[in-house]
Structures are given as C-alpha cells and as structure tokens.
Write a sequence for this structure.
C-alpha cells in the first residue's frame, strides 16, 4: 500500500519544505551532511571504478557550500560543537567518510570559502594501501555484467558480516589482485599524504574504525580493538587523536558509545537524516544526525528539505506504515 503513495508524498514534502522556508523563520540548529567520494565530473563517475554513492562532484560541493553560506549557516568543527554552539545561530558540520584520496579535491573549495570539514578515516585501508571492499565488489561485478540492483543487494548482505569475512569472500570470488587500487580515484590516502592533508587548517580527521567495521556485527573486544586501533594509527600518522567518530553504516549501540568515550571520543555521527536541535545536550553529542545526498536528484531541493522544519509527509508515511500492519 505504501508504495502507491511514495511519489505523491515526496512531492508533498518538497512543496511543504519550500513553502515553509518562504513563510517562516527556520529553527536554529546544527545540520550535518556526509559525503564519500569526490568526483571531477559525470565522465569520471561513468568509469565505474567506484561505487558512486552520492555522486558528489566538485561543482556540487561548491553548490552546497554556497547555498548554506548564503542562508546564514556557519560551518563548524567538532571542537566548536564541544565548546557549545550559539543557540541563536545556524550551523553546518560537513563530513567525508572512509578516507578516499580523492577527498583532497575538496581542499581548494574549503580554503576558498574558509570552511572546515571533518574527514573520517578507516586506517586499515590507509596503512595497507588497498581498495575499499564495496568498490571492489561494485567494479568487478559490473565487469561481469551483473545488474546494479543485484550489486547493491549483495553489498547490503555483506554488511551483516565482519570485515575480515567480507574480504575473504571477495578474494575467493574475484582474486586478491582485485583489491589493488586502479587509480587515484578509488584508492585511499597513504600515510604521508594523510599527514600533509591533516595539516591544512580547514581539515580535521575523525575515527571511522580501523577496518570500516560495522560495529554492531562485532564482539565487545573487537569493537574496542577497531576503535582504539584507529585512534592509535591516526595519532601515529598525525600526532593528534580524534574527538569524533562516524559509525560505519550509521550502526551504533550504547555499548559502542561507551567504548568510544573510553577512547577519548566525545562526538558520534549517525546517518539519521534529521536536523540537530539546539542546544545539544551531552547525551546527544554521541548521536548526532546527518543527511546523505543523492546526486540523481536536484540538490537544491535536498538542501531545502534538510533546512525545513515541516515534514508533514513523514508523519503521513508513518501513519500509513502503521495502518498496513
């Protein structure tokens, strides 16, 4: 039943968001976005070397920065969040996950507009100079002619496993050489590049676990090893320990939060697509919400949706879902 209402609900939500922004003052908040890879253009995306995810290009990143600056948003760092944000202001935390070398393309834009960003790093890939497993699966499956829908279903299935099991399975399927990076587009930073990158005043690094572990799949000791391993590796590379963690796939639990805190982490990022109201309590610091972006859809509409305080369509959708049980 819900699928019949999906398109009209989306149209209604878009209309309401725009009208609400025109007629009413936005509530003061912290908005956060997550990005993975950063492409030059559509032609680079079409090479199919990596899972395109948000399909974020340099031009689209510039559009994001300009839109929020022009609407009175101040780009902030985790340290500024910890010190306490102005409850009467509008704030944006820009984040990148995983540790792709192509994220270095963001530097000219960050420096031009003088806005900071946080780059969450999975250190195993940096230290071992190997490709990210989801890109290996995406690239090699496309070469075999496997449809996109099946590839995404396989990625979702593998996310229920630990990283070592995922890697083992993909090496059996595609061979060990499949993990060798193909170009600067799909490879992670190496240690010297990451050290230089982190020295830029608009760059702050964060913890994304050692092996991009979806932590809810792991034992208590393994969770601690993943978080502590990333903290230690980033300290060895940069001389600084992160204060923020981005939970891979957005998965977290109370246990994961407590282990993160024991390792000096004070801010945690999820993938719940909502604004963070102000002021931010200590309890919510480890559960901050973030929006993703979809490069197939109009970005301006997505920016307006993230800023809007009216989401009637979401309430209707929830009611329809409950009535279908």
């Amino acid at each position: 039943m819900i699928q019949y209402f999906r398109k009209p609900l989306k149209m209604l939500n878009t209309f309401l968001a725009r009208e609400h922004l025109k007629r009413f003052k936005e509530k003061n908040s912290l908005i956060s976005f997550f990005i993975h890879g950063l492409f030059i253009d559509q032609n680079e995306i079409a090479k199919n070397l990596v899972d395109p995810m948000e399909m974020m290009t340099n031009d689209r990143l510039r559009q994001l920065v300009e839109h929020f600056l022009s609407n009175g948003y101040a780009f902030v760092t985790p340290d500024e969040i910890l010190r306490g944000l102005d409850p009467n202001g509008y704030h944006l935390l820009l984040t990148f996950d995983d540790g792709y070398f192509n994220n270095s393309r963001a530097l000219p834009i960050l420096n031009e507009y003088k806005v900071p960003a946080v780059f969450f790093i999975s250190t195993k890939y940096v230290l071992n100079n190997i490709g990210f497993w989801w890109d290996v699966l995406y690239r090699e499956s496309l070469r075999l002619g496997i449809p996109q829908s099946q590839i995404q279903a396989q990625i979702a299935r593998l996310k229920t496993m630990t990283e070592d099991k995922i890697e083992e399975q993909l090496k059996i399927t595609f061979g060990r050489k499949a993990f060798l990076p193909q170009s600067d587009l799909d490879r992670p930073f190496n240690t010297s590049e990451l050290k230089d990158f982190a020295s830029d005043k608009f760059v702050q690094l964060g913890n994304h676990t050692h092996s991009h572990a979806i932590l809810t799949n792991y034992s208590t000791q393994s969770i601690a090893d993943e978080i502590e391993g990333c903290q230690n590796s980033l300290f060895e590379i940069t001389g600084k320990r992160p204060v923020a963690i981005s939970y891979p796939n957005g998965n977290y639990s109370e246990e994961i939060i407590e282990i993160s805190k024991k390792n000096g982490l004070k801010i945690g990022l999820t993938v719940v697509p909502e604004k963070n109201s102000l002021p931010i309590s200590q309890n919510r610091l480890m559960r901050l919400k973030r929006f993703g972006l979809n490069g197939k859809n109009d970005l301006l509409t997505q920016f307006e949706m993230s800023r809007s305080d009216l989401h009637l369509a979401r309430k209707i959708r929830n009611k329809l879902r409950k009535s279908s049980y």
Notes: The chain has one domain: 2-131+181-318. The mean pLDDT is 92.
